[in-house]
């Protein structure tokens, strides 16, 4: 094993350092202090104590400035950011997409080298944006609404697929529910194409832009969960609401019926459920035409337990957000609840495309072989006069025409 050239000096480079780290990729050298690295990481400590086969005392080329040279298999930028964070502390921010890549590199290497305090700092900052609580979610959405886009990228300037894959790679389960929730706002076909501008930014610390087979199932389940709760909120919490006995508004029930009708026509496939519900709650609380009390009728279908008020509904979302997507299998979703996707506006072509991609996944086909391949057309099967030449005939006139064409 040969030591890479150290003609390119990286930052930081301390003249009084006593060890040199050289990256294998685009060889870059960092002259540092053994004691500082060993103090923060047991991996570095054990690495320095291990004998290096390429560093023999009689080989002058293996020592530079009287310092031991250690080859590192990390990107130069990530290693530079890690060392700076150890000496000066991390510099987290959310001003553009490069700030996320900076955090991703620190989180990846702090996990690799067991630097616990730095890994914890990365996770805490990541959870401020990709929160695991409803309060944190609401704060993040408010910031996103009031923050202007940069280079045509909206806050928080990173695609949830990158956040999800980074969380999987570094075992940060805290950020998985939020990343999956926001990922469910994207079309399945767009996720597989991976051509969103946020996914195309080139950076050495960029996570994978491919959806894993396991998270494909989670995405599908969470998409279904979001649609179910949206319909439940509109039809039951709002549509079947009964005014309280002390209601001062005579038209309260009629006003809720109008609200339900408006919501039924305004919500879309990409409607963000949590913010959507919060907006309606604020509207109802601020308008005097709605009463403060009341609840849903006893005959209503209780999809999410004993939830009768919008506030209770919002709290129930927070309780189930982290577990709902994983408690059911993918097969149960399609056999029992897939009908809600049709009701929500997901076309039959999209539903077949999702099924087709999952079948490809299970047979071990790599992404690049089928992600841009058009899905196969449905083959009509059957016998009798209703099916001829692979086409379904709906009338006797069409059947007669097809027979004449066949004779000629």
UniProtKB/TrEMBL annotation:
<dbReference type="InterPro" id="IPR039603">
    <property type="entry name" value="Ribosomal_mS41"/>
</dbReference>
<dbReference type="Pfam" id="PF00651">
    <property type="entry name" value="BTB"/>
</dbReference>
<dbReference type="GO" id="GO:0005739">
    <property type="term" value="C:mitochondrion"/>
</dbReference>
<dbReference type="Pfam" id="PF09597">
    <property type="entry name" value="SAM_Ribosomal_mS41"/>
</dbReference>
<feature type="region of interest" description="Disordered">
    <location>
        <begin position="379"/>
        <end position="408"/>
    </location>
</feature>
<feature type="compositionally biased region" description="Basic residues">
    <location>
        <begin position="391"/>
        <end position="408"/>
    </location>
</feature>
<feature type="domain" description="BTB">
    <location>
        <begin position="17"/>
        <end position="95"/>
    </location>
</feature>
<comment type="similarity">
    <text>Belongs to the mitochondrion-specific ribosomal protein mS41 family.</text>
</comment>
<protein>
    <recommendedName>
        <fullName>Small ribosomal subunit protein mS41</fullName>
    </recommendedName>
</protein>
<keyword id="KW-0496">Mitochondrion</keyword>
<dbReference type="InterPro" id="IPR000210">
    <property type="entry name" value="BTB/POZ_dom"/>
</dbReference>
<dbReference type="InterPro" id="IPR019083">
    <property type="entry name" value="SAM_Ribosomal_mS41"/>
</dbReference>
<dbReference type="InterPro" id="IPR011333">
    <property type="entry name" value="SKP1/BTB/POZ_sf"/>
</dbReference>
């Amino acid at each position: 094993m040969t030591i890479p050239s150290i003609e390119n000096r990286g930052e930081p480079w301390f003249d009084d350092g006593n060890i040199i780290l050289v990256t294998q990729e685009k060889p870059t050298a960092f002259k540092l202090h053994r004691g500082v690295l060993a103090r923060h990481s047991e991996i570095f400590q054990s690495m320095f104590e291990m004998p290096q086969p390429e560093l023999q005392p009689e080989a002058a080329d293996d020592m530079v400035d009287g310092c031991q040279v250690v080859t590192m298999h990390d990107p130069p930028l990530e290693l530079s950011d890690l060392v700076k964070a150890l000496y000066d502390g991390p510099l987290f921010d959310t001003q553009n997409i490069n700030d996320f890549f900076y955090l991703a590199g620190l989180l990846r290497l702090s996990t690799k080298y067991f630097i616990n305090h730095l890994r914890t700092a990365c996770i805490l900052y990541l959870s401020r944006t990709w929160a695991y609580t409803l309060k944190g979610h609401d704060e993040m959405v408010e910031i996103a609404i009031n923050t202007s886009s940069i280079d045509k990228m909206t806050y928080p300037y990173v695609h949830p697929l990158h956040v999800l894959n980074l969380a999987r790679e570094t075992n940060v389960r805290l950020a998985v529910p939020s990343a999956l929730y926001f990922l469910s706002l994207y079309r399945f076909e767009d996720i597989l194409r991976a051509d969103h501008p946020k996914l195309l930014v080139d950076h050495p610390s960029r996570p994978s832009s491919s959806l894993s087979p396991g998270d494909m199932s989670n995405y599908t389940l969470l998409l279904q969960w979001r649609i179910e709760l949206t319909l439940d909120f509109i039809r039951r919490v709002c549509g079947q609401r009964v005014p309280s006995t002390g209601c001062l508004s005579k038209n309260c029930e009629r006003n809720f019926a109008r609200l339900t009708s408006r919501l039924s026509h305004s919500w879309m496939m990409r409607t963000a459920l949590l913010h959507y519900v919060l907006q309606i709650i604020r509207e109802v609380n601020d308008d005097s035409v709605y009463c403060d009390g009341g609840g849903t009728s006893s005959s209503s279908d209780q999809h999410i337990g004993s939830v009768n008020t919008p506030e209770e509904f919002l709290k129930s979302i927070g309780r189930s957000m982290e577990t709902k997507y994983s408690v059911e299998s993918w097969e149960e979703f399609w056999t029992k609840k897939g009908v809600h996707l049709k009701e929500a506006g997901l076309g039959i072509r999209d539903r077949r495309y999702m099924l087709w991609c999952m079948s490809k996944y299970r047979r071990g086909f790599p992404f690049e072989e089928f992600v841009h391949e058009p899905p196969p057309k449905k083959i009509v099967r059957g016998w009798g006069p209703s099916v001829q030449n692979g086409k379904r005939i709906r009338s006797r006139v069409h059947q007669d025409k097809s027979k004449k064409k066949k004779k000629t």
